[in-house]
Structure formats: C-alpha cells, structure tokens
Design goal:
With 143 residues, the chain is mainly α. Helix content is 45%, strand content 7%.
C-alpha cells in the first residue's frame, strides 16, 4: 500500500478486500478509530489468513492510504477461489480469493467503472496455505 501510493500518488485507487465475517478494518475506517472484532464474533471464515485484526502499526496505513474497503460473503470468497483454481490453475488460498471476490462484486462494478477512468485492476494473489480437502467440501456444499 505504501509503495503503490508512493509510486502512483492519487493516480491509483487502493481498495482493501475483507470478508464480511471479519470486517474490523471496514468498521474501523467508518468509525475513524481502531476497532477489533465484535466480542461475539466466532471468526468463522474460510479466509482464515484474515482472522487477525488491524494493530497500531497497520491502522494508520489503512486509515490514511486506503481509498475504500469492500467486504464479501463466504460464498463469494469460495466462488472466486474456485474460479482461480479452475481457470488459472493456480492454487491460491481463500484469503486471496477475497480480493478476487471483491473485484467480481456488484459493489466494485458500480463504484469503479471504466467510464470513470478505471481501466486496469490488480489483485494480489497469495499462497497455497489451504486445506484443499476441507475447502473443496465447502465448495461442494455451496453448489
């Protein structure tokens, strides 16, 4: 985020992607202060790499350099992860599927349109830290 903002300044939009179930960054940004997960949050997300919260070092970066935060459902995460597995033949973890799900979402499409000058979209894909069997079972249940 820091490097992109430094290289491109306001010529780039930095959109953070977050599971709806783990929305501490979005809620923190909306509140203007660092918040953790809700006390009753069971942290039930297939995107287990995103179960941590923002801290005092990361919050100022999100607060000051991120343009928007969009959250997506568990189903959206699984569908996006499956799409990358099937079409690109790349084993990403569901946490990386969150960014893909955001880029494919209706909210993203309505906010960031080609007519408004958005012509390129980059999504950072990471790791294979995934329980393939469990994730496939969840995908199968989803249909």
């Amino acid at each position: 985020t820091i490097a992109l903002r430094g290289l491109f300044g306001s010529g780039i939009k930095i959109i953070l992607a977050e599971p709806s179930e783990l929305d501490d960054a979005k809620r923190s940004r909306e509140a203007g202060e660092l918040l953790g997960h809700h006390e009753d949050n069971q942290l039930n997300s297939v995107a287990d790499g995103l179960k941590t919260t923002l801290g005092p070092n990361t919050w100022p970066i999100v607060r000051d350099l991120v343009d928007d935060i969009i959250t997506v459902s568990e189903e959206g995460i699984l569908r996006a992860t499956k799409l990358i597995w099937e079409r690109l033949k790349v084993c990403i973890e569901p946490s990386a599927g969150v960014g893909v799900a955001v880029a494919m979402s209706d909210e993203f499409a309505s906010k960031y349109r080609m007519e408004d000058g958005i012509v390129n979209v980059g999504v950072i894909l990471c790791g294979g830290n995934v329980d393939i069997i469990q994730t496939c079972k969840l995908m199968e249940q989803m249909g």
